[in-house]
Amino acid sequence: MLHFIRNNFFSIKNNIKSNEIKDIIKDNLINERFFSNFAIKEISSFNIVRNHSVLFLEKEIETDLHNFKTVIIITNNIKIFDNENYQNVLLVKNLKEAFNNIINSIFSHEDILDYHDEFDLVNNSYISKKALIHNTSKIFNNCVIGKGVEIGKNCIIKNNVVIKNSIIKDNVIICDNTSIGTTGFGFDFEKRGSTNLNPQIGIVIIDNNVHIGSSCTIDRGKIDFTYIGKNSMIDNMVHIAHNVQIGNNACIAAQTGISGSVIMGDNVTIGGQVGFAGHIKIGKNVVIAAKSGVTKNISDNSVVAGFPAIDINIWKRNIIKAKKNGH
Amino acid sequence: MLHFIRNNFFSIKNNIKSNEIKDIIKDNLINERFFSNFAIKEISSFNIVRNHSVLFLEKEIETDLHNFKTVIIITNNIKIFDNENYQNVLLVKNLKEAFNNIINSIFSHEDILDYHDEFDLVNNSYISKKALIHNTSKIFNNCVIGKGVEIGKNCIIKNNVVIKNSIIKDNVIICDNTSIGTTGFGFDFEKRGSTNLNPQIGIVIIDNNVHIGSSCTIDRGKIDFTYIGKNSMIDNMVHIAHNVQIGNNACIAAQTGISGSVIMGDNVTIGGQVGFAGHIKIGKNVVIAAKSGVTKNISDNSVVAGFPAIDINIWKRNIIKAKKNGH
Amino acid sequence: MLHFIRNNFFSIKNNIKSNEIKDIIKDNLINERFFSNFAIKEISSFNIVRNHSVLFLEKEIETDLHNFKTVIIITNNIKIFDNENYQNVLLVKNLKEAFNNIINSIFSHEDILDYHDEFDLVNNSYISKKALIHNTSKIFNNCVIGKGVEIGKNCIIKNNVVIKNSIIKDNVIICDNTSIGTTGFGFDFEKRGSTNLNPQIGIVIIDNNVHIGSSCTIDRGKIDFTYIGKNSMIDNMVHIAHNVQIGNNACIAAQTGISGSVIMGDNVTIGGQVGFAGHIKIGKNVVIAAKSGVTKNISDNSVVAGFPAIDINIWKRNIIKAKKNGH
């Protein structure tokens, strides 16, 4: 399992205890049930539950929470609140609002004005004193390597690249003007306006041998991480949103955009200017033709094209049929 | 009405008087009518007429020009020239050429080699000594904040961001590698080649609480301004061309491109990779599905999809019908 | 013919002779035929054959190789190997692998860790001491102008622009955050993974009066060059891949992507968000509507739209027909 220490990237602003959380959410609180009081140091997600954390739940998850004695659950779901297996639960009116308030109370992250860092200027690049860069790697000019960032062996980070909140493994090449690890575009769909954007406190993990082109953007995970698998190669101006997970050996052509929480298997091949709806799964060995719009899950070994993306043979037949009809 | 002082952003190169303009346009001049001579300090537009200015007119506008005694009109339209309500008029063969020559004669702007500025380096960011940045705002690293730029309270300007010719209000967040306020892509459609690109001398105004993602480009207005309304949120790699006006509470997903002079009402929701033709109007509360190509005006409260964008229910029905036809 | 001296951009790492090449490709070698031994200083391409070079051939080319006595041909094609007109030939199993190994053995290029350069900081821009910039040109802030780059007269290079491996002629304007001359996305289609990306050792040539918008990426040629013709104007976020050649007076709107080795005639007009398949030819005076996907050659004076792009009148008729069918 991929792992990271959030505290490396940004510090805890306030050391709070679980019973202080209701002071943060205030009028948003409907009901509470407490068995124990403990220090809060982390945020859990559906996928990774941690002790000494807050866990935000809209619905039940598979993880057996019995093993986590120091988790406080925040939910807007009365069934979860009534589930007696959960020991420490707060029922709230608005879960997104609770998330935003709690995250911003605990952590001092980059989108908050009190964020601080110390750095060196090397080759006119900003290198945080709290970044860990292997001495076989090379950072070109005008880059920003933020706090907590790790860069492995033999990496080449070209010019004007911004890397924050990220772990870059070995032999990775990142081309000019690319931005990795900034805040993504997660928000409360039921409310309008930028004040409903969720703070993002996850990271980006880029595995061995990945090649990333120029002017790409790879957003940090919301709570956990955005991940690019080994040996993957990504062309210019590719946008990869928060929580996306891409398998090994991906080949992604220019100007493709991958929405939040898309998960892809190994060996995907994606043409240029493809778009993906959020929260879908793409199987392994899938080929997606250029300019496709992928709106739902794609099973292993499929070859698709069009918008909405369908089997490429059907797509081609439709085009030939349209031509024959004298169009 | 939104207002700005052009002279803050770039200086007047030559102090000219209205009767000197014909020396600038030379052989382009066909006829002239002069009642008075006055100093020229500004350029007017269809929407904002200013005294002591030049106004370029292809056709009549609604503004009553009687109140503006110190406006000289340049037109290629004989009817406008013959309209005796207009006191100071020059009739020209080629209006775009006149625009280009006059602008470049009067103003010393960024696309001209004699442009000068003085700056400080703070956090390795270039900060013009003539920028006004509120002390509660934070500029990260390797940024450029150009001459005349105003940045309000509690703004966060991340890394490698370029902001020129812009007024940024309060609580605005701008993510890495974004460019705001550069010269847009306005040109003379009847002529070929980059020498027919128009100088752009407007600005960008970004209102309170706007969130702008990474690697976006927002071009300055041609004469007036490009505007992003309050609480709007814009994802990564969004392109917003000159003179675009976006209302409050917009939500615009990644890789969307908005052509010049598009005007949008409040509360628009726009998916990823959407494109807009220039000079169209999008009503309030409009929803535009991802990958749409919007070619004409969209009325309030519409939900559209496809290219050309149509009512989303019709678009969906067409797709289902195509499937049933054995496609 | 456009010409450049590769050695200006990156140095020869190892001075090798033709008979040493088989030591580089090792087990990849099947057979060899040698008439002479000579120093290797260059790489030839299908289009430009040079003496003292290696030439990689999959199939026969038109150039009469008799005039080139100091060219060693590497091929995976038995017919080429058996052609007795060719004096120095190595037959290999995998041509791409041979290309990668030989290039990386001879040249010290930017994607290799031992790359070195010396530079000055001017306006906080990195200017290689081995760049040639005309004193009438202006480089704004936080730029990188790499080794060997030439910039002609009266150019304006705005902020955070990266220019490497490029020759920029006169009166060129390049807007903020654009990347020119980085490594493109050429790879071995038969193998998966970033380790099969080909080293790119060509350059970019941008001819007189070209205007390039913000956040564009123009990749260097693989062996020769990517070329943008005189007076062309390119909007924001346009991606131009390796080996693309664009004629004079092109007009290319925002967010368009042009795949590798596309060749265009003069006076093309291309809307926004257009995509091009690789290795196709676009005639002169062609107009391509916004959002088109161009999949094959387009003849002179055509006007096309849609995906796959077809004659725009047919495309419009299809849309009207779809409407009439009650869709």
Report on the architecture of this protein.
3 copies of one chain form a homotrimer. Chain A has 327 residues and is an alpha/beta fold. The first copy, chain A, has 2 domains: 11-106, 3-Layer(aba) Sandwich (Udp-n-acetylmuramoylalanyl-d-glutamate--2,6- Diaminopimelate Ligase, Chain: A, domain 1); 119-318, UDP N-Acetylglucosamine Acyltransferase, domain 1 (3 Solenoid), CATH 2.160.10. In chain A, 12% of the residues lie in helices and 29% in strands. The first copy, chain A, has 5 helices and 35 strands. In chain A, the strands form 6 sheets. In chain A, strands 8-9-12-15-18-21-24-27-30-33 form a 10-stranded mixed beta sheet, with no helix packed on it. In chain A, strands 11-14-17-20-23-26-29-32-34-35 form a 10-stranded mixed beta sheet. In chain A, strand 6, helix 3 and strand 7 (89-92) form a beta-alpha-beta unit. The radius of gyration of chain A is 22 Å and the shape is globular. Chains in contact: A-B, A-C, B-C. The A-B interface holds A 110-111, 113, 115, 119, 121, 124, 126, 142, 144, 160, 162, 164, 177-179, 182-183, 185, 187, 192-195, 197, 215, 217, 219, 237, 239, 241, 255, 257, 259, 273, 275, 277, 293, 307-308, 314, 317-318, 321 and B 123-124, 136-138, 140-142, 154, 156, 158-160, 173, 175-177, 209-211, 213-215, 230-233, 235-237, 248-249, 251, 253-255, 267, 272-273, 290-291, 319, 322, 327.
